[in-house]
Amino acid sequence: MNYNTAHYTAILEYFRNNRDTIISAAKLRIVLKDYGINVSRATIYRILDRLSDEEKIVKVQQLGKETYYKYYDSQKKNRNAILLRCKKCGKVIQHKNTIFGELCKELFEKTGFDVDKGNQVIYGCCKNCNK
User: Fold this and answer.
1) 2, 30, 68, 113: most buried by Cβ count inside 10 Å?
2) 55 & 91 share domain
């Protein structure tokens, strides 16, 4: 049985208030501590796993690097969504892309390779940083 602890609520609220931010568990712990909320590393990872399972956040995993987390906007849920991350300011945009979905479908049909659509990140510069 899952119940919402004060730590769970605080972490979920952080993501809701920072929808365009991508953050690691270690950085999240520092941010929470700055707000006066002391949470153990293990508790943070448990809550992040639960939020990911509940599809409230998405894990952005990079091979050989730290895992990052981002709020997953349920109004924009789409299996073909990709994340666009600005290399300059760190802003993350969730973007629905039918071409990406078609590419994944074609890859599966031709090769049997099933792309993990929840972990696709394209890096570049956002509109504001390109000015």
Assistant:
1) 68
2) no
Strand partners, 22: 70
Residues 52, 86 within the same domain? no
pTM score, whole prediction: 0.68
Classify residue 129: in a domain, yes or no. Answer: no
Which amino acid is it at 44?
Answer: I
